[in-house]
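Bug #2210: token dump truncated for Methionine aminopeptidase?
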Amino acid sequence: MFCWQPGITTDEIDEVVHQMIIDNGAYPSPLGYGGFPKSVCTSVNECICHGIPDSRPLQDGDIINIDVTVYLNGYHGDTSATFFCGDVSEEARNLVKVTKESLDKAISICAPGVEFKKIGKTIHDHADKFGYGVVRQFVGHGVGRVFHADPVVLHFRNNDGGRMVLNQTFTIEPMLTIGSINPVMWDDDWTVVTEDGSLSAQFEHTILITEDGAEILTQCEA
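Reproduced locally. Full output below:
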């Protein structure tokens, strides 16, 4: 797992990612979307999602989710990962590990004709084995020519209908917590944190449903 050095700010991370996107002829989808003021979301420790980059230096032991969406050649690609900053506790490392595993397991069951509710069951079953909570209010979504579209992809056990179809593209983005799954939104109308201040982690990929299963479109080569 990649580790950031303590002392770097989330503003600096935002600036680096923004410039990399622009240098490659693309555009950061979150910038200006619904009034969001930055190019990436940076969610630290108890922040579940949609954290706004700022001038606070990362501290030794922090975990940080960096959520990047890029618009290139008429299409959006959406991905995120949770990283370590310095020497991270075993409790935090385990949460991050299990969250990544839950995403990988969910992707592995995707294929034409599979019910979407199996994604939620797969994630929820894996989280339960380790006593982690699954956030319900934030979901995966269709993505492609538009940033957010159908289908809605729930990450918890559910009985919603719908099956995956060939050439469909959507995100899976489970958010797990050590404690409360109840989200609290800050006054900035973006930043969402756990009600009890407990740690949260998230991983996300954009996938394409293929004849053989699912292709990860946002898999990094390095």
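Output looks complete on our side. The chain has one domain: 3-216. Marking as cannot-reproduce; reopen if the truncation happens again.
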